[in-house]
Every structure is written in C-alpha cells, then in structure tokens.
Structures
1.
Amino acid sequence: MIEIHAVTVRFGGLVALNEVSATLTAPVAGIIGPNGAGKTTLMNVVSGFITAHSGRVMIEAQDFLSLAPHKRAQKGLRRSFQKGQIADDLTVLENVLVQTDWSLTGAHAKRAEAMEMLDVVGLADRAGKIGAALSGFERRLTDVARCMVGQPRLIMFDEPAGGLSVEETQRLGDLVLQIHGLIGAQTVIIDHDVDLISRICAETLVLDFGRRIAFGPTAEVLADPRVKAAYLGTEEIVP
Amino acid sequence: MDRSLFHITPSGAAGLIFSALCFVFLPMLAGSYWLSIFTSTAIFALAISGVAFMYARLGMVSLTQVGLMGVGGWLTLRLNYLWDMPFEVNMLCAALATMIFGWILALPALRMRGLYLALVTLMAAGGLEILFATYQFPNGGEGVWGVKTGSGEAFRRPLLAQTPEAYLRYCIVIATLGFLFIEGHRRLFPGRAWALIRRSEAAAMAAGVNVTLYKTWAFGIAGAIAGASGALLAGSLGLLDDGTFRSSESIMLFALAVVGGARFWLGVVIAAVLFRVLPGLLNTWGVDTDLAFVIFGAGLLHALITAPNGIAGQIHDLVAKLTGRGANP
C-alpha cells in the first residue's frame, strides 16, 4: 500500500504537484493524466529523484521521503523509466542481477531468482544476449524482470507500453497482472494507454495541472466528466 | 555470452598468449636500448589501463594518471631510502597511498562529469607537477624530502628482477596482473554497477546501486594502478625527475587510450606502444621524435571520425567479421 499525503512540488514559480493525496491499495493501480499533469514528477518524488516541497510518502507504513534513491530501491521500491535503461554491454542476466548485487544473499540464489524472473517474462533463453542486441520489447521485458527480483514491495512503471505494438502491450499487461500473485508486490503504472489502464488497474489516480482531479475504481474514474474534459477538452461554442 | 569470473574468452586467451610471448621473447631479443623502451612500455601499459578503465567502464575522463604515477614513484623512492623493505612492500604501500589519493580526488569530482571532471583532474595533475618540480624526487638525502645534491644512493630492485631482462619480465607480469585485476572487477558486481552508471546514473540508483561508492571505488582502482606503475618506473630507472610527470603527459595517455581503444586490452597495449615504442623507433631511424605528436594527432582524428572504439575496436570488428563471432573485449 502506498500512501501519498499532500505532496507538493515546485520548480521555481511552477507548481508541478499541488497537495496531491491518494492511498493506492489495489495490487495494480494506475496514474493517468494529460502531458504535463505531474505523473512522472509524482513517480520521481516517490523514487527519490525529486525532493518534495512538502508532504509525505509512506510505503507499507514506512516513510520513504527521508531515504536516498538507492536506499529506497534496497527497501523494496522498484521503478522503470520511460526510456528503457538497459546497459548495452551487459547481458540480459547481468542487467537483472545488478538489481540485487547490493544484497548479501548468496550469488547462486540471486542468479536462480534472476533466471526465474527471466523465465516469467519469457527471456530465459536469451539470458546470455547482450543488451545492445535486444529489441525494444525485449529491453522492456528485461526492465520488468529487473523490477521483479529482490522481493520488491512496490513496482512503478513509467509508460511501459510506450512504443509497443498492440500485441506487445497485451502481453505486457498480462505480465503486470501476474506480478502481485507471483511475488506479492504492488504495481503502479503511469501510461497514456487508457485501454491498458482500464484492463489491468483496479484503481486509478488522475492528475491534471499538478492537481488530483479523480481517484477511485478505474471504471468510475474514467467515466468522470472531469477526467473526460481533461483528456478530450471541453466544448467551445464560437458565436 | 558466458562472463563468469574464470571463463577465458578468445580475446582473453589471445591477451594471455601475447603476454606470455612478450615475457619469453622480448628480453631475449632486445638490446639494452630496446630493453629500456619495452620496460617503459609495459609500465605505461599498466598506467594506461587505469585511464582506459575509467573511460570505458564509467565514461569518466581522468587526467591525473601520470601525476599519480609520480606520487607512487615518489613514495617508492622515499620508502626505499628510509627503510630496508623489499621492493614489493614499497610498491604495495605506494599503490595503497595513491588509491587513497584517488579517493580524495574523487570527492570533489563525484558531482562532475565530462569536461568539468576532466578539468578538475587536470588541475590536480597540474598541482602535482608543481610539487614535483619544487620538491624533486628522493635520491637518498636527509629530511622529509630525501633529496641531496650530487649522485644519489643505489635503488634496491626486486630480488626476482636484478637484471634489466628480468625486470622487463617482472613488469610484464605486474602489468598482466593489473589487466586481470580490472577484468575481474568488470565481470563481477562492480562491473555491472559501473555499466549501469555509465548508461544512466538515475537507472543505477533505481537499481539500488550506490553511485558515490562505485565511482569512488573506480577512482581508487585507477589510483592504485597508477601508484604501482610509478613504483615500477622508479624501480626501472632507480631515480625519477619531475619532467616525466608533466600534466601534459596525462592528456597524452588519455588521447592514446582513445586512439588505441579504451574498451580493449589490445587498445591499451597499442596506446603504450604508440607512447613509448614509436618515439624510440623514430629515434633509431634518425627522425625527430616530435614527429610522433603529429602521428598521435592524426590517430586521434582517425579515432574520433571513423573508429569510436579505437584501432583495437576495428581489429576486433574485423576478426568478428572473419570468424562470424561477436567481438568481446
């Protein structure tokens, strides 16, 4: 469970997030909003790359805002980036192993877990392939496997379906739906693909201009006139 | 691709065979002039491996390597005249001291990248150059600085390497061990962390990598290697002078690492050969050795325009094309 309490972020005079609060409890939750709504900023606050001006973020009752980004990762927070960050000169397996290298668990156990997660995402047979030789979807799947190792508590995906085909998005959605059952982690997804969000997210937070405009069960949220207005705009009658 | 610690890749096997051939044949074939040049080449290959490692693995440009060699050389000479300890102990002390120096240097440099990091390290090299010119290198004199006028005291070489031939072999072994030390790191968790840091510091932090720790670690390794190289240089010559450790030499080492190919062991060897053997050849042919700078400049231009992985990268690509296998540094 992730609790976001009155998080405010300012960049000079611009208020990127304005007193945003939400308690995400569903195994798979979504954050949507138009471009510039503050979705990635919120993810950056949670993962420690942006310091909030005020507010609190609790993950399973633990305050995360006081921790450095790498410490948050070690405490079970995972995140992906819009542009897949796979090291080109590491193999797929090494790209996954790096997530648990800090841990004192035995090397064999870490390797076995990494291989298990690569099997889950369907990349076990390409574990020895170097990052530079991967397709865009394989890079994304490697990212997902990396987020799944090391017993994470919360996984955040930033626009994971960006640049993927319909079939690949479908497969990715199926994979995300399996995460909670497999490793018990909660997943939060930011995406513009409303079809994907409505299919896999039980609850959704909608942001617009740094403010929360809706939050609740995804179907209800997507039917909210304010959400429709934020996405599609309001009708303007020219006299 | 198998990258377990003890797996020998074709490229690695070629490197070990090359090292063994050098170990056996170079001292047998070379006269005193070339013995001295090959010894210096092996020593600078070790020093360049530190610069190349920083650049290839972390994308960081360190221009203090020759200055740190000077620190290692100074400490080795000082310890040699101060106490009756074996050369290896003095070399280890020098490497440890320059490793710590590397960490200290890393502290202000950690928040910098690219040109700014290069400038900070170059300034440190400039500072060391001034210190070397002011205080000179110990030669058996009294006091903290250990400098005396006239001829210096004798320097104790390693017990295993009393002759110039044996010392060349000794330097080849130490350089090979240095290469293996770096390769071992590359294959284990520090190598994975460095690769991700190079890709994106944010991604590395998100993966739980302590970026500060691993960058400092890298600076420490490069520093230790520079210190050991400086110790070997002191052992080779028995005395050192400040002219060897100019900051411009650090720039030259980095440029040649780029020309040779920083990602490959062969690139480091090519860089060392260009740095030491080429001027020696020009000298033998009666040509002005400054011509080497023109050749270096042309090589750098070639690397920047057509060969981002240097000459060694081109050789690896060619071998991969001929054998139908992927190039592996």
2.
Amino acid sequence: MGIVVENVTKLHQSGYAKLENVNLEVNDGDFSVLLAPTGSGKTTLLRLLAGIEKPSSGKIYFDGVDVTRLSVQKRNIAMVYQQFVNYPSFTIYENIASPLRVAKTKVSEKEIDKQVRSNADLLGISHILDHLPQEVSGGQQQRTALARALCKGTKYVFLDEPLANLDYKLREELRSELKLIFREKGGALVYATPEPVDALGMASHVGFMHEGKILQYGPVKDVYHNPEFVEVGEYFSYPTMNILEGHKVEEEGRLFIKVTDQFKVDVSHLHETLKKDTYYLGIHAHMVTTNRESDSMFEIDGTVQLSEAVGSDTELHVDHRGKNIIVLMQELVSYGIGETMKLYLDPERFYVFDTDTHKLCAKTVNGG
Amino acid sequence: MATIQLKDIWHSYDIEEGKTENPQYAVEDINVTYENGSAVALLGPSGCGKTTLLKIISGLTTPTKGQVLFDGKDVTELSAKERHIAQVFQFPVVYDSMNVYGNIAFPLANDGVDSATIRKRVYEVAEIMEISSLLKVPAGKLNPADKQKVSLGRGIVRPNTAAVLLDEPLTVIDPKAQWGLRRKLKQVQKELNFTMIYVTHDQHEALTFAEEVTVMQVGKIDQTGTPKDLHEDPQSTFIGYFIGSPGMNMMECSVDESGTVKFNGTSFNISKKRASSLLEHGDEFTFGIRPEYIKFGLEKSKNAVSGVVKLVEDTGAYKIVTTTLDTLDVKSRAPETMEVNEGDVAWLSFPEEEVKFYKDGKKVI
C-alpha cells in the first residue's frame, strides 16, 4: 500500500512543463525525500500529491484508489510548509488542536487534549502550549506546525522544506528528531528539500529531481553509492562530488583515463565498456585524502584555494593544475591560501560518466 | 589597515536615552584586540550584542564606557568617516542607475580625487574583485553576488581604509554563488592584508570565514579563538554546543578521589591526579565530550559504557550514531563502512584527554 504517481505531467500556463512524465512509488513506511535545487519541480509535485493543484495529465493513486481529481480536503493528508503557518490569535495549544476541532466526525475534548499533549510532547513544546505564536521562537513555531500536522493523524504527511527558515543548530537538532518522530507513525512521508544532508540523514528513499523530471529514485544508500547521472552524484553528496574530465590513453599496455600527467586512473578492466575517447571521472570529496592510506593510491600535487571549517570537519578547495578538487577532512585543520600540498586518491573509488549523456558508465570497483 | 583594540567597553542604550537608574547593558566588559590584517568573526545568537559591538567599532555608536583604539590611537570620539571604515551590509548597497565603474569610483569622486587617479584605482579594484568585464553594466542589472562584490569594491577603493566590517554579507546570495564570494572575501583579505570583521549568527559562516572567532552570549564575550580552539577546548558549555556539528555531548556527573566519574547510573575512570584537581572545585560537574572523540564500537571493551543504538544518521562520509545510555542520549561518529543498526548494543569509551569538565557552564579543567 502507498502512493503511486503515474505519468504525471503538469504544464505551466505558458506551456512549458513544470513536471514531465513523472513516475513515483512511495510505499507505506517510507520516508521519502524529493531532493533538488530550487525550481526543479519538487514543490509542484508535493502540491499535486496533496491535491492543492491538479495534474495536466497522469494519475495519482493512494492505496490503489485514484485520487487524481480529489480535492485537498478529501485526501486525508497533512502538509507542512517552509514558512511557519499558525493562527496568530490562537494559543499554541489551539493551533495544534485546530484540525481536530474542524474534523467531520466530532472528537471529544478528552481525546483532543490527549492528542495535543502527546504530539506537543513528541516535539518538545509542552511548556509553551499557553503562548501565542508570536511569543515563541521560529523553531518553536515550526514545531507547532509539525505537531498540528501529526495531530491530524493522517496516513500521508507532506513537508515542503520545513527546516529552511531555521538556523543551523535548530536544523541539525530537528533533523534527528524528525526521523525518530515519523518512524513511530505509520503511513508515509514525502519531504521536499534542496539539502542533500536532509536526505542522507533522515530518509529511507530519495528521488533526485532535475528540470521537472525524477532522474533517479531509490533507497538512499543505492542512490548515494550508484548515482546514475553526473547531476545526481554532484548534488547528492556533501560536499559535492568531484567531477573531472579525462581522456582515454594507452600507456605500457594499460588503459587509463587521464586528467593530468599525475592524475590517471587505470581502467584496463573496463576496456569493453569504455569505448569513447572522453569521460568524466567522479570521486566523493571524503575519498580524497592528504596522506597515503594504501599503497594503491596515487599522488597529485595541489595548491590550496580555500580552507573552511565546516561543523567538525574541514573542507579544502585545492587547485590541481587548473582543476578544482574538493577534499573533506574529518578533523579541523587550517591551511593558508596558496599553500602547496599533496593529495592521494584511490584508483578504485571512481565513477565514470559519459560526457554527452551524463550517464554512469562504470565504477572502477564493484560493490560499495 | 589597523589593529583594532576594544578596551573595557560597556554600552547601555538606557543611559544613552537618559535612563540612569538600573540601566541594562547591551554589551559589557568587552576586552579584545584584533591584529592588523586578521580575519575575524563576531558570532552569536540574535540579541547577543554583536551588532552593538559592530556599531561601536565603526563609530556609529559611542560606548557608554571604554575606549576604541586603532593602531593604539584613541578613536572613541571619531565618526565612522573619520575612522576610514568600510562596511558591507546584508543587502548589497549599490546605486542602481550608475554603472559598476561609477559605483566603485563614487567615494573617490566625492573626495575630489582627480579622474586619472580614480580611473587607475577603479581598474585595480575591479581586477581584484574579478568584475572588470562588468564595469559598464548598470549596477541594477547585476545578480546579488556581483552586487555584493561592487559593494565591497566600493568599500575598499579608498587606499586608506582602516578595516572592513561585514554584516551577514551572504544572506541574500544564492547558496551556489556563496562559495565564490567567500573565496573572494578571504582572498581580498589575505592579499591586501585587510582587517576584516564579519558579523553573523551562523556558526557555519563564521567558522568558514574567520581565522579567529569571538563568540558572544548575552552581551559578553564567551571565548575568542581559532575554530580549532573553539572546537577542541570550549571554555563554556554554550561553545561546546554551539560550535561543532553535532555539538558536544554534555552529561551531569559526580567525581571521587579514586578517579571514578559517575553519570547516569554508569561510570568510567580518569586519572587520580586530575580527579584531585577537580575536587578542589566540588564533586559535581558537567562533563563534555565531542561526538568525534568518542570511541564507538559494537564489541565490549575496557573502560567503556554500553547502551542501545537509537538512531543512525548518514552523512555520506561517516555515520552519526545516537546511543541511549539508560535515559541519556549520546552522539558519536562511526565510519561509513561500519555496519550499525538501530537496536544494536554499542560500547562507548571516552578518551580522558578529550573529556572536559564544566561547572555552572564554565570550564573547570
């Protein structure tokens, strides 16, 4: 049981497709993230799922029932938006209770009280129930909106960038909490966000959207380790995956993809797959290291462009003969701009992408 | 460029408005020196007094008490203009109808500098900011990142600029364009050896920009240090929580002279020597340890405490694991390659050198 989106297209008034032929299957129990930069169609898809908008063509099913033409009120869903939507003149308590007050079948005061308190407790806002929204922080207002969505007790919950307006620390905390909170609820959750860390940290499944299409959908680990397109690899990793263009060369009977004289990856075992002259090599930033961790690693030189402390890690932007390489180090270190250094890369950690179609052609090692 | 020194600064808006009875202080007891050519951030939640401090440095506000020194010279009574401070704000301030050249040239033209000198200087600045190709474009047509470069260029066009103050300059910049602007800011700061002070509530921005960060909380400086100092040796529980991602684990504990640290129904050991110096301050503390320093394993080990894995969050490069020890949640890291599942029994050990002890929010040892 779950949500099925079948060949859904949504045209903008001007005729271009905001969504084009989208297919998606979200099963009950899934925490599904729609990941994409702004303007890729994820909010549109969420609005179609909620019934706020209707598709130009295609079908949407909930538990096998066609709901394509059903209004938002009849779909039994809850939605949480990026901007905190609360009733300003209602207390936090009444805000959370509001969906139960307008429910078609009357809910007893006792039941309402139970629901409000248990959901407020889950979201850590029990102590502010008597306050008005403007008296509490932005984080607490968003928690209120989330509690109200949970209070509705609907099977499907849709969240549109719910953490976007919160500061860094709050986002970090709510991210862990949301995963725990929604795990205890049945049904399914669809969550739209431009942040790859949201998907990596919370979701069971992720769909990467690009120009109104879902480029890839699957369990988080599969998509992360097997990005089918350059765009997926680049976007769905933090920091971004390094993508470098290289040419196929034969040297001493071995086949390499060569980025620079120092930067060559042996692809002899892939000679039957790699028929073109040029490919993109992809490698995750945390796979590039500043010391030789195994004998098979090759060394390249570089000049530091920028060294940034990110949380408890360091992100280095290094210039290697005109190519920008991003390195994620799991410690705090400081390098000066212009400092020269050596980087080490494992030839078995690369993805090979087609430069025309951007499709994944091969990985330099199996599994992982 | 100048070394900026704040000496025993106190400021009260109440006193400024004439309310001298029980005045509230927006900032108090501020003593800090920013060396010439340093990249500094003023970091803290909203309402912590960082904007007040910024205004005191720029000369928009005269402090109730204390001195502002630039290169040892008292500038407390000087106006912003007389201090030669350049400012870049959240929203880029450009003259939309003028082209980029006119925007950058504006301060010099105002000063009555001759046009040949202006021309030379504008070209230099545009080159540094990598906006030479945009000089003829009306500033109103630029994207926010380029507008912000123009703001900065105009700020530094006067050769005698003493310092550049940046007030959350990346707020309106598209995340993808932020990297380029951050690099530019750092590069300009380094190459021209500018003193740059960056004000933000965003720890991420502060740590990525600055070599030295001043963290403020309710009007006071909590700690000034490099990102590494703040990370490895937080002087308060607030810094422990605020810096680092996720923040430091904090646990209430009691210590005895044998070196046993009891917390949450379990215990681990520290050296007797350390225990005895702790005991000079009492026997109840909060101890803190960062997630990345906890040794996490799925097999029993010496001096380790056990709990049940509650949550596993992936970051791609590694896992963040939340383990419940009785009633307490502790976060630690696990390698990406390690198979960890929710419900697993985990063993955590706390390397002594990474454990810090706090009392009333302040570090003891």
